[in-house]
Amino acid sequence: MLIPRLMPAAAFLATATALIAIPATQAAGPAALAVTVKQANGLPVRDAVVMVYPKSGGANGPIRFGWKSDMAQANIAFSPGTLIVPAGATVRFPNLDKVRHSIYSFSKAAKIDIQLYGRDETRSHTFAVPGSVSLGCKIHDQMRGYIKVVDTPYAAKTDHNGQVRIAQIPGGAASVKVWHPALRSRTGEHSEAVTLSAGQATSRAISVELRPIS
Prior knowledge:
Layout: H1 9-20, H2 24-28, E1 31-39, E2 49-54, E3 72-73, E4 78-79, E5 82-86, E6 89-94, E7 101-107, E8 110-117, E9 122-127, E10 131-136, E11 144-150, E12 155-157, E13 163-169, E14 172-179, E15 189-196, E16 201-208
Parallel strand pairs: 1-16, 5-11
Antiparallel strand pairs: 1-13, 2-12, 2-14, 3-4, 6-9, 7-8, 10-11, 14-15
């Protein structure tokens, strides 16, 4: 009869300790957060920028997003109307219109004064400081563009239903912030705490108040 070989006590304890030492969030995988942003009357808020700041375990290295750091001028409008970029990004502004455009901003996060340039020409600007930047054109007063410069890799903007899903977030306590150019807030953002479950998707409905944009 074969007698099973017992693991030495020291080896057993070392193995058990190693298993216990694996953090629960690492074992279960990253979390996800699905956010719906609406006004008090129930209308969805499109192009609201949602940012998540985990209390611990944030990503290391440079921040990169899955879209280009480009804001074109097309059909006498900035496109996209709202662009999210990481701090330090250089944004290109190609002119796709038949008319000339300029770009200016008096925002605290970036002072910009790009003079008139024509079709198929491109200008650029580097956004070094996190914050919100409002853009305009000196020739076309109706043109409005917004760049949200962020310092977290967990950021995206809502769709036409006011919804957005951000994945690959470390589980645990975090703060979620919402920014929109028309948001009524002393700080310009809405912020609240959230607890994310590792390996699961958490849903959060956020109600905000907007003011008219002139």
